[in-house]
Write a structure and sequence with these properties.
Helix content is about 45%, strand content about 10%. The protein is an alpha+beta fold. It has one domain: Hypothetical protein af1432. GO terms for molecular function: dGTPase activity.
Length: about 450
């Protein structure tokens, strides 16, 4: 019989006879088999902690396999069939990478294994609360449901509720599941706070003390919008859309550092990375302009949200609602079936035109910005220098490119002609609508 071979790195352990080393060997072997490696096109090999694997194996998390990351954008860009499941794995992985960089470069931060695990879990679970078609329901349907149920519907808050359900499910199977991985009830509170992000300057959070406030900026950064959630979807969405991504999150990761600014510990970056940070915000704008709020994507998603109030209270937990409604024979769903049938057959309203608004008193349809409305988002990012790595401040104007835009948001009005087919009579009406729109633009915006 051929002798079984072992990895060379384990041979010294096999030669040791003490009970202690045998115990350590068993721990290493157990860890090798408990950790799971996920492979993907963006981050390649992602190793996740056993507790994260247990979370991914719950029905609440598996549901994310059936929710497309970009909702109705798939009906315009066929490559965007990726889902919330793989995005969540990516965010968990990047969250772990960032915590490890900070821990290795700054041991005095006293980042514990529990801190690392909690941040990774928050990254994994941050999108649990997404409804079918992702942000379509956030912006259009959930507000209507709130009118009926008078309940809060923001997806972060729903993610927290879903995470509570997962914890209950895991504890029902094993009451000590958290304790076995070094976590307790305070850590559960911490994870839920991380999912929602720290929104106030006054420290009111219970999961960790203010000296670890920087951990609250990793998954959902409410201070300046630089977080691993944005890093993952920027890379992932650009990849599937075929849009060039000029932002290098791997490089920025290497220059992350915690500095105390205005009495609070913040994640800061090297001053020479200012252009890279701006590219991140610019990429966000590009994704919104070319994909998320594409003229056809918008109208498809608006149409998708046109289900009557009787159906909104019984929304299915995933994108399968599309097929369920399409195949239903219920009289109550006839109007919804007709709407979805028009989408599939591309019988969509005809795009007439769009104009960038210059006056605040005109109702807008589409709002595009770099992440912080009209404000330059980079003003809220802190940078340190090579000579003073422990001191950080906002970037100076003269340190930024003079080619940056004067405005960081724009408001668009879009006009569509509602039609069901492309017969000659309707096409003439579309042409007339386009002429009327041009006249309106000229009179309102002094266009010639």
């Amino acid at each position: 019989m051929k002798r079984q071979s072992f990895p060379a790195v384990l041979l010294p352990l096999l030669l040791l006879k003490s009970k202690l080393n045998i115990h350590l060997f068993r721990i290493l072997i157990k860890r090798q088999y408990d950790h799971k490696v996920f492979n993907g096109p963006i981050h390649h090999h992602m190793e996740l902690h056993p507790l994260l694997v247990k979370i991914t194996d719950t029905p609440q998390f598996q549901r994310l396999r059936h929710i497309k990351q970009l909702g109705g954008t798939y009906l315009v860009y066929p490559g965007t069939s990726h889902n919330r499941f793989e995005h969540s794995l990516g965010v968990a992985y990047l969250a772990g990478c960032l915590v490890k960089v900070l821990h290795d470069n700054q041991p005095k931060l006293n980042i514990s294994e529990q801190d690392l695990l909690c941040v990774q879990i928050a990254g994994l679970c941050h999108d649990l609360g997404h409804s079918p078609f992702s942000h379509v329901f956030d912006g259009l349907v959930i507000p209507e449901v709130q009118k009926i149920k008078q309940s809060k519907g923001k997806h972060e808050q729903m993610s927290v509720q879903m995470f509570d359900d997962i914890v209950k499910r895991l504890k029902a199977e094993n009451e000590d599941v958290l304790k076995e991985h070094g976590l307790d009830d305070e850590d559960v509170i911490f994870i839920k706070e991380l999912i929602e992000g720290a929104k106030t300057s006054e420290w009111t959070y219970k999961g960790r003390d203010a000296d670890k406030s920087f951990l609250y900026e990793i998954v959902a950064n409410k201070q300046n919008g630089i977080d691993v959630d944005k890093w993952d979807y920027s890379a992932r969405d650009c990849h599937h859309l075929g849009i060039r991504n000029s932002f290098d999150h791997q490089r920025l990761l290497k220059f992350a550092r915690v500095c105390k600014v205005n009495g609070r510990n913040h994640i800061c970056f090297r001053d020479k990375e200012a252009d890279n940070v701006y590219d991140m915000f610019r990429t966000r704008y590009t994704l919104h302009r070319q994909a998320y709020q594409h003229k056809i994507c918008n109208i498809i998603e608006d149409i998708k949200a046109c289900f009557d109030d009787n159906n909104k209270s019984s929304i299915l937990p995933s994108d399968e609602i599309f097929e369920q409604i399409s195949s239903s024979t219920s009289d109550n769903l006839k109007e919804s079936r007709d709407i979805l049938n028009k989408i599939v057959r591309r019988k969509l309203p005809k795009f007439v035109g769009e104009a960038r608004l210059t006056e605040k008193n005109i109702s807008k349809v589409v709002d595009l910005d770099h992440g912080m409305k009209e404000q330059n988002p980079i003003e809220n990012v802190y940078f340190y220098s090579k000579r003073k790595p422990n001191e950080a401040s906002a970037i100076k104007d003269y340190q930024l490119s003079s080619l940056l835009p004067k405005r960081f948001n724009e408001e668009l009005v879009r006009v569509y002609y509602k039609r069901t087919d492309g017969n000659k009579e309707e096409m003439k009406k579309v042409e007339e609508a386009e002429k009327c729109f041009q006249i309106w633009c000229a009179s309102n915006f002094e266009l010639h």
